Amino acid sequence: MAVGAESLRPARERTIIDLRSSVSRGLGWIEREAFPLTIAALYGVVLLLLMPGELVQDSWATLVAGREVAEQGLPHRETLTVMAQGVQWVDQQWLAQVAFYELFRVGGYRLMLLAHVALLVTAFGLALVVARRRGASAVSVFLVGCACFFVAPWGWQLRAQSFAPLLFVLVLSLLISDGRAPSKKVFAVLPLLALWANLHGSVVLVALLVMLYGLGRLVDRRRETVKGAVLLLLAPPMVLCSPYALDLFGYYRRLLIDPPFGQLVVEWQPPTPGPITAVFYVLAFATVWAIGRWGGRLSRFERICLLVTLVAALQATRSIIWFGLTALILVPTLLDETRVSRAKPAHPAVRTSLAVVALGGVAAALLVTAAKPAAWYEQEWPAASAQAVAAATEDRSARVFASDRRADWLLWRIPQLRGRIAFDVRFELNTGAEIKRLQRFFGRTGNDWQAAARGYDVIALDRDSHEKVRRSLLAKTAIREVYLDRHLAVLARTAAGADR
């Protein structure tokens, strides 16, 4: 027995030594990566604590469309709204919509929002990892990460696009990595594009980057001509790997080439200088200046990526998110050429403590938000508002004209409104003339600005955006207010104004 005990002692000692070694390596890694870990953790904490605000009109549109696909199959004709009734509906984002709908069915708003946060934090964290692997210092990655943290806060909203940032970072990292160390792994971008083609329309931008990379391979390296040709020729077909296939030509043409709703939706307009876009313009200016000064540190394709995503961002506010992720990966290397890389690093104990506290903050935020009651997640969308609209539309012939911010939420909460609500955020289904009528209504312009809502029995207005419209309508004796809270106003036509 004694001999057996003695023989076990070296094994226990080796286990203890191995454990100590693993802990030491782990702490060493945390100390080296303290700054990237801290900014990634802060990103996660902010997204977790702001989850109720991440539910917006596009979130409800995603859930409504996901329910349609799950219950009715892939749609081809519009049946949800009055104005676009019967119009061809190419639901390019169907897979993302179904994914979020199924997450809701399994775990409600809590699971759905946690999955959304996980997607965004993983994309941000992976971009930090790629930047470090390219050789950028931890301090430079941290500083650029701070800027990219706030470069596109509207990208925090839950929508079909939530899947796209992670795919964007994966594709861009594969292309950049292949440019520095050629590998067959780069061909993985093709199935990623095929998957993306069913999640979000931003796949078109990334397919363009893949084509440009393939073209560069054809031009620069003769031994890479096959790879270049494959990427150049197969990237476009991947965009069409969808149940809608060739119908996507018309869809993308309508959305990308002078969309009729471009002047109605802020995200589709060029970014106007202001507080919310200030970080973007600072980052854009700094990036252009750094490329001009130290652009040789980047490959030609990397410079093209920054240029293409910057041009896309300057054309439409919604595209700033792609420039931000590209800058997060590539700009830290340029920042290392400044005095930042020569700055005296903080004490190792300070760096380690900072990272541990930040990671602890993520764990605490996760526990706090996961323990919140279900009502916390939809606090900006009170059930009483939806109940008021449901009561005002008990008559199945009653039709509703709602603000775009509330329309899909009402469709989600009151499925019986299917086919009875005027329009929703899928403005691509509406004609240019219909969109102009909506602009006149909500802008109260023209002698007959109320025409867009004529024939609708109930009008539901978002008070944050359309309080002036509410007051103007109440000045008409044929309209009365049946419900009012700080979010929503519900108006109904009197019998005398039913035909007005």
Rg from alpha-carbon coordinates: 26 Å
Taking the alpha carbons of the first and last residues, their distance comes to 99 Å
Number of strands: 4
Structural domains: how many: 3
Main β-sheet description: 4 strands, mixed
Q: Assign the structural class, choosing from mainly alpha, mainly beta, alpha/beta, alpha+beta, or little secondary structure.
A: mainly alpha
Order of strands side by side in the largest beta sheet? 1-2-4-3
User: What is the helix tally?
Assistant: 19
How much of the sequence is in beta strands? under 5%
Flag low-confidence runs. none
Principal-axis shape: globular
String of helices and strands? HHHHHHHHHHHHHHHHEHHEHEE
Helix content: 55-70%
